[in-house]
Specification:
Elements: E1 8-13, H1 15-27, E2 34-39, E3 58-62, H2 67-82, E4 86-90, H3 106-109, H4 114-119, H5 121-124
Parallel strand pairs: 1-2, 1-3, 3-4
Length: 144
């Protein structure tokens, strides 16, 4: 119900990614355009009774880069497509955290290595390109 005023929905798995989605939307200046939605785990499915509320929204699934996360993202995408929702996914493949570990989800992206950020700035600028806007999005990391 709370997402009704938003043209877009960011769908994530888990509370840390939920909070990271809020932070990333704010950094990209789309916090008033993207409703954050959290699935509490990879085993969860979107309740059939809720699917009609996604209709007419653009949805991006920020998936975990592991087998359960990828399977969950594919399942959620199929559910959303069956409800005639425009949906896509965002993968963090190839990105590296400051500790040298791979970025596997949206929360890990908050700790991206500066060299990885610079090398992937063009791709990261697309993080919120699914959001309908009348003016271009800002570059990743250039907040208010």
């Amino acid at each position: 119900m709370e997402a009704q005023a938003y043209p877009a929905i960011g769908l994530v798995e888990g509370t840390p990614d939920f909070l990271a989605l809020i932070a990333q939307a704010w950094t990209s200046q789309v916090q008033n355009l993207v409703a954050p939605v959290c699935m509490s785990g990879a085993a969860m499915s979107i309740p059939e009774s809720v699917l009609p509320r996604f209709r007419s929204k653009r949805v991006r699934i920020f998936m975990h880069d592991d087998n359960p996360g990828i399977s969950a993202a594919n399942r959620w995408a199929e559910q959303l497509k069956s409800a005639e929702v425009q949906v896509d996914g965002y993968s963090f493949e190839g990105l590296v955290q400051i500790n040298g570990f791979p970025v596997e989800d949206l929360n890990d992206l908050c700790r991206i290595d500066p060299e990885s950020l610079e090398a992937n700035a063009k791709d990261l600028a697309q993080l919120f390109n699914f959001v309908p806007r009348s003016k271009p999005l800002t570059q990743y990391g250039q907040g208010v």
